[in-house]
Structures are given as C-alpha cells and as structure tokens.
Here is the input.
Amino acid sequence: MADVNPANWVDDYGDYLFRYAKSRLRDPGAAEEVVQETFLAGVRYSRQYSGSGSERGWLMGILKRKIVDHIRARAKHNQELVYEDEHDPSEQLFDAAGNWKPGAINWSPPPDQEIEMQELQFVVQGCLETLPENQAAVFVLSAMEEMDTDEVCRELDITPSNMWVRIHRARVGLAKCVSAKWQVDQNIGTNEVKQHAK
Amino acid sequence: MPNDKAISHLISQSMRRKLDDEESARVDSHLRESEEARKFAELSALIQTSVSGTSLVESSGDQNGLSQEAKARLKESIRGAVQQKASLSQADSAGSISASDSGSGRLHDPQLAETSPVQKEVGQSLYQGHENRQAAASFRLVRPIAEGGLGKVWLAQDEKLGRAVAIKQLKSQSLESPQAWQRFHREAEITGHLEHPNVVPLYFYGVDRQSGEPFYAMRFVGKRTLSDAIEEHHDRVEADEECCVSVHRLLSIFQDICQAIAYAHSRGVVHRDLKPDNVVLDNFGQVIVIDWGLAKVLEDGELATKLTSDALLSESDLLQTMQGEAIGTPLYMSPEQAAGELNKIDHRTDVYGLGAILFSILTGKAPHEKSVVGTPPDYSSDLNSVLKIIAASDPPTASDYGKSVPRKLENICVKAMARKQHMRFDSAVDLASAVESWMAGQSGKQAAYDALRMEGRELRADMQATVRDMARNIRFAAGMPSIEGLMKAESDEDKQVWRKRLATVFQGLLKATPYFRSFVYIAVGDGQFTEQVRAERHSSDMSTIRVVPRSHLRSGQISEFVQRVADEMPEEVYTSVVIDPYGDSQEGCATDLRLVSGVPVYDSETEDVSGCVMIECEINQLLRDQLSRGSSAAEVVVACNATNRVLLQSRSGQIIDTGQIETVEQIADHFLTAVETLQTEADFIDGQDSAIFGATLWFVPNERGISYLLRRK
Here is the structure.
C-alpha cells in the first residue's frame, strides 16, 4: 500500500475533479456532491491504493464510477419524463421527407483558419448544458466516457436502439447549437461567446 | 434509398461504432453529394473530439473550479471520514463486518463477497511480502443474556464453527455518543490484549455494516457468577449444611481472580470494577474475570503503547459515559474511588477490590452494604453521603455483620482493604499468596481436625458397642432355664440347685467379658427386691470372679433404677449410669459411676414381673481403657451430661487423676460452648478454628449420658 494524504486532496485535486464532474453532470451542485463522495470513498478504501498510478488517477477512477452512479440514479428518477425523449431537434433540420433543410447546419469555419479548440470547447460546454437530461445521459456515458453500448444500456436500463436514437438526437442538437453559437461568435466576438458559454 | 435523416443517424453512429461496408459506402456517397451532411459530419467530429476524455477539463485551466466555500466543506467532510476510519481501524484490520440482516438477528462479515480479490491484493501490498488472510465471520443471535450500562450481551451461534459464543453489542441508547463508541472499542481492545486463562477470550471485533453498530464476539462462559456461588454457599451455611468444601472452593476461585488481576497489572491495566458479579464461573471450574469497560490503562504500562489512541480514553470522557450506571454502585468501591481521587487509582485499587470480594466470600455481604441502603440501582441513600462514608471509614470487618470467620483470614481481608493504599498488600500476587498459605495451613489443620472428629466419634461408638454388648448378654442370661427354675423352685434344695446353675452361667459370662463387673438376678415383689444370685469381680483383683454367698446378698426397697427396669416390657433393656443401682438417688456423678443394664423377668403363669437380671460395668474403667489407647488429641475430657462433671480426663495421652470431682468449666473454658451445644446436639463441630470436637452419648434420652470433648493439638 502506498501512502495517501487525504488532507491535501482538496487543494491538489479538488478543482480538477470538480471540473471533470461538472463537464459530465452539467450541474455544479451535483459535481461537488460526487467529488465529495469520491474523497470519502478514497478515505474509506485508501488501502486499495497501490501506488502504481498517480493519486489523481486513482481518485479519477473513483470519480468516474461516482459519475456513472449519479447519472444512472438521475436517469432512473427521470424515467417518467418521457417527453424529453420526444424532443427531437432533427425536426428543425429535416423536412417532412427527411431531407436536410437548406442551411440547417450553419457551419462555415474559415477554410484557411485553424479552429481554436479551446474556443470550440467553451461553446460545446455551453451547448451540453442545454441538452435534455436523457439525451445528455447517453451522450456523456457513450461519447464522453466512451463506454460500450452494452454498458450504457445496462447502466441506464435502455435498449441499444433507444440508445442510438438518443445519442443521435444529442449529436444533432449539439451540432445545431454549436453551429449557431459559433456563428454568433464569429459575428460578435469570441469573448462574448466565452462569457455566454459560462 | 435512405433519406438524409437516415444517413445522419449512420454518421452519428460511426463515431461510436464501426459501420459495415454497405453503411460506409452509403455514408461516403451521401457525404459527397450533400453539403449539409458534410457540415453535420464535420461538426459532430469536432464536438466529439472536444468532449473526449478530459479535454474539456484540461482546457478549463484554473477557471471554473471549486469555490472556497466548497473546498472548506470538502475538507471538513474528509477530516470527519479520516477520524471515523481511525476509530474503526481495528475492525478493518481484523476483517470488518459489512453486511447484516438485522431482521433475522444475523451478523455477518465483511466486504469479502464483493471485494475479496481486491482484499487479497491489498493485503499483499499492505504487508509488503507478508500474505494477508481475511475471512468472513457470521453470527446468529439466539437470545439476550445480559445487559450492562454500555452494552447488551447475546448468546449467539458462530455459524462457521457451529459453536456458541457471546456477542456484546453497544446498546442502542449509547449509539449517539461518540464517547460510548470509544469506550466500547476500548473495552474490546483491552480485553483482546489480555490473554490469560482467567480473562474472557475475545474472538472477534467488528462493525455491522448495515446498522453500523460495533460488536465483539467472545467465549460464551455461561451466566453463573461468583455472586451466585457466594449466595449459595451462605444459604447452605444458614441451613447447617456441609460447607467446608464450599469455602475451600470459593477461596480457590479467589486465587484465580488474583492471578488474572496480577496479570492485568503486569500489562499496565487496572480493572477497578472488581466485584463478584464480574467473575463468571463456568461448568468446568473455569474462573473468568469480565467487564473491563472501566479499566484504566496506566500510561507507563506495556499496553498503553499497543492500544490505539481511541483506547486511551481520557478519564473525564470515560466517566462521562458512566453517568447513571455502575458508578452508582459503591458496594465494593475503594476509598480513593469514593473520594474521587482518580489520580491515586493504581493496582492497589484492585487489591482493595480483591479484598472486597474476599470479604463477600467470607460474610456473604458486600463490604459497604451497611453504608448503602436500598437495592441497586435504586439506592435510597444519598450517593454522595455514602461515598463520603466509604472514603473516610476504616474497612468493615466480618464482626460488623455478625459473622464469625477465621481470624487469620479476616486479618488478610482487613489488610487488603486498608483505607490507606500503602497499608494494603503490595500486589494481587501477595494477596493470593497470603490466602494460599492460610489455605495450606488450614488444610493441615483440617486434616488434624478430621482425625480428631473421627476419634471422638470412635470413642462414642465404642461406648455404644459396650452398651449393645451388655444388652445382648443380659437378654441371654434372662432367658436361661436356671432363672425359670429358680423362680418356680419351692424347696430350698431345688432353689440351691438352680442358684448354683445360674451362678455358673453368670461366672461364665463374666469370664468371657473382662469389662463386666457383675451379674445379678433379683426377685422383686411388694416394692421390695432380693438378690437371688450374684456373681462379681473382686474389687481389687479384676481377674477373680466370685459368687456372692447368700448371707451377703442384698435386699431392700426397690430403687428408682430397679423400678425402671421392672417397668420395661419383656426383652427390653434399660441402661443408665448410676452410683448404686439400689440407691435412691441417681443424681450426681462420681468417679466410681457404674454403667448398669437391666432386663425384667416375667412369670410365665402370672405374666407379672417377678424379677430382674442386671449387669454392671465400671464406667471409669471403661473410659480408662478407651483413653489409654492413645489419642491424637491434645486433651480429652469425658463429662457427665447432667452436671457437666468430669468423669475422666487425659492430656497428651496421659490420664489425669486429680482425685477431685470437677466440672468442665473448672478445667477448661474452651469446652464450655461445646458442652452447652451437646445438650441438644449429638456433635459439636468447631466452625471457627477447627479446634474442638464434641460427641455425646445419651443412655437415657435427655437425662443421662456422657460427652466426649476433644481438643486439637
């Protein structure tokens, strides 16, 4: 067993774990909650820290598990809110025949200018927070935490087809949101977009 | 042909799964044809890249972190978790209890079902080369068996080993108190560190995962306590049942307790709640000291460095958890405890407690019972005033409770319970040794007393045998045809013939039995008696037997003794001690007292008593013979029951002839209690010092008899 030093955890890893949790849970309160659960579990199972990896990595492993637990619990709580599943942003992008509406994706980065990833991430983060809960849950577990389809379905108690529908709606919604905000960014300035993303 | 919407689904899925060839071809074709599709695919790929892994976090820099308030909250919760873990570290290292089914009264072990592979791995890294073994434990609660101030004790079944164990749980009322948790943990830890045959062995300490309540498993030692044994012993004494073995057993138990406490002292632990209730006796003679919940761990003791910090609960914290419980039971409390002088508590406090237990064994009472009125825990006395009395008073003695106990043992008790600590025995071992040496002496003394008692009873039995022998001979003589012939003979010649024949029989009987003094046949009638035949030994030459000539035969008024004989039914023998069977007065004792037996002779025709056959013995001679056979006693006195007059006396095997008639009290005060007891009892047993034994033999019930009094060397 390697030594752990819980007294320093908040100062050393608190912000990092919090940001990670917030990016997945999209709620500062929930993020602080899972970070706290992570630290308490770390104290309780400190003997399991072998020292072979970094202390932060070990805590991150616990945090990821806590995030999944949190999302699962929240999804279970929201199971009755079926209307969210019915929220299909693709209706705004496709016509009745299922073809792209003209200008549906207003995405036109300058062809000779490299995209500033940090700027894009601010925009994406802001858009993530607008996703309906059930779509966000699937997107976080699948796209962000890169869990297998089976795992996601098991954690959220949904079928694979349901999962693919939800993740597609999430991607379409994000694409629409990001493209719209990116356009604004190009027009009124990056700083204001950043501000908005916060 | 799929529409744009269907293709966009495939584009979405392609980022998380590999499309098959047909799907890929369809998507590629669509991307070439549709700008919207290309924009969607390109943007979705960018979004996927931006959210993968920790890229979102890494890009956030120092912004969007925790607020200072949130950090403070987190630090506080971590601090609490660390403290809680420290308090349960013992449980963790032993393999903590993690699951519970309280509904079925089942307590069972650890997180092993879920995490045993991890545990094993952890164990290896934890001990760096020393393999760790962790095993599950499971206990099924059967029934509650006891409840104390802090915990509740259950009889439980160890389901792994199939054996009965005792489980002690923290009482639900105490669960809210951190100090109670600590004290409970501390009790388990101290008990677990005291490995001694007379300290209850602790098998397991853990925390029930579901309820979170701590408990520990220990050997089930039954419910019978020393308190029960003491009560039983004194009840038997009250009922005059045999008690000597019981006292010996109780003192042996006491020595075991001393050894257990001496061991605890060697580990730096003072029990300080010693009382008979805290000593359990199992069915196999094992003595177990329990309840180390109030024990004090001496700072410089060996155990102090081995216990966790929680186990070194401060005195104030400990006392805080004791409010309203056993501290209100001052029956066995030492003066320094009663005075609240906690800094003075050391191993000698336990010496006092041991002395208090000894006191209880000897008297059946708790030392401070007189100071405390009422029944625990509802003492009607004011506790503070009781404590003041205990703190200021000298130790009680057995006589304070009207009990007679061996003096040396009482002195041991007084020394152990001395008010000043430095006046007590220096250690529990010293106290045990003092009791042991008393028992050893007592053992020799007891053996000597047993011999004395046997000798006294043999003397009595020997005298009883003489009386039976007399009765047998006299019945034989009374049935001789010579007596019938003499009775019916009318002529002097016939009478002479029958007289000679009867005299010959009497002579033969006298020759056969050396201690018979005389045989006589008397005729009775009209209130008169007349000796018909008398054969007797010479007064100075016992070997000479003579037939008394007719001219010297006696006659006269029927005496009380003869009348008693004549009043008996056929074959019934009347025996008494008298000076002269024909004398009027049968009172008093004399050195020439005779033991006389008589049987009536009935006329077969008239069916009236026509005469008596009597046999006489010189009782003084009988006693001389008995006492001159040698004796293990320092002194033997034979006294007449009616007057306490001494018939014969021997010292160191030598018969003492003072030539004077003395009473028992004139020659030895120490026999007085004995002779008084023997007026109503067959034996006198000296329960205090095992020095005197007395046995009495009544010839005429409650009227005439003799007592043998023996004093141990």
About this structure: DSSP finds ten helices and no strands in chain A. Chain A has two domains: 6-77, 85-197.
